[in-house]
Amino acid sequence: MAKDHDSTDGAAVGSTVEKHGANPPSHGTAVVVADEVQNPGFPPFRPRVTDLSPEKEKQAERRVSAWFFVSIIGSVLAIVAYIVFPIHEGDLLSVRLNNLFLGLGITLGLLGIGIGAVHWSKALMDGHDLVELRHGTRGTDETRAKAVEVFQLGNKESGFTRRKLIRNSLIGALAVSPLPAVVLFRDLAPAENPVTLLKHTMWDKGVRLTRDPSGTPIRASEVTLGSAFHVIPEGLNESHDRLEEKAKAAVLLVRLKPEDLHVSPGREDWSYAGIVAYSKICTHVGCPVALYEQQTHHLLCPCHQSQFDISHEAKVIFGPAKRPLPQLPITVDEEGYLIARSDFTEPVGPSFWEREL
Q: Is the dihedral of CA 166, 167, 171, 174 positive or negative?
């Protein structure tokens, strides 16, 4: 016989009912908050004085152009000051005057453009607020057309083509402002052709090879197999431009077995009893090549790892250098001291000095 079960909640006999609250919203459901902050929009446009008075507009235009002319004057004054107040070696007053007037001129040149441009944007360009929505850009015809439209709108708002006085004075200021830098940087370069300068060093026929930095002459008998000497020309330490001359004339002297040298025709007498001399100035960017491997006869440039083979006339075997190190022809004098047969037969240093315009 079946047995009935009582149900106090009116549910079907034998059933179980669970009660739950309302289902929570999905995490991906966007909920609009009822009390969100509304967009206040733009404040009402307040016309400027230049918007209301054509006379004030013209005055502002003249002020902007005046600042651009101040920039031109400042740039020219910087060039004049650099020439009128040259720096003399050992004269601290000349350094101060040069820095003072050169700095004032460059400051006027740059400050005039900056103040003029700011005053132009504040007083004459359209002052209304705007919102520019960001959209994905593609190189379509519509995008190009829109870009032209934006450019034309900016030209209209700034009045660049319409305000000829501002436009011409700005162009003049921008054209003149780089001139002080051109004059300064040009003066850093040698007055003479650098290619010609680098083709000649202090080495010459009969000049003795001396130790760096003492300047002591070197006998051939002092150079043993596997040894390496850092060499400068005799008289370098007494030179007025010692550092400049050393940067061109520094040499590394090495002794190998004569049978290990591979000499090309015409260079048979450039070495002495296996002693060879090569420029220390790397043909890549001019770093000093001073690391010598005795077993492999390789010279290493520590800057960019160019390697040169001394046994094969310092040819490049690795790295970015493009040509061998220039060789200094050497021999000995009556007293047994090593001397140069001549200067280098090619420019020392980076290869770009050899290029002809």
A: positive
- pLDDT tens string 11-54: 445 555 555 555 665 555 555 556 677 777 788 888 888 888 99
Tokens of 278: 């090569």
Structural tokens at position 27 = 């995490």
Q: What is the largest CA-CA distance in the chain?
A: 141
- CA-angle at 183, arms to 181 and 114, nearest 5°: 30
- The closest of 212, 216, 217, 218 to 243, measured between CA atoms, is 212
Angle at 267 between CA 264 and CA 272, to 5 degrees: 120
Q: Residue 117, Cβ neighbours under 10 Å: how many?
A: 16
CA dihedral 83, 89, 92, 95 (to 10 degrees): 30
Pair of tokens at residue 133: 């929505």
Cβ contacts of 298 within 8 Å, gap of 6 or more = 292, 307, 308, 309, 310, 317
Residue spans of beta strands (DSSP E) within the chain:
209-211, 228-233, 251-255, 275-279, 291-293, 298-300, 307-309, 315-318, 330-332, 338-340
pTM recorded for the entire structure: 0.52
Rounded Cα gap, residues 97 and 205, in angstroms: 45
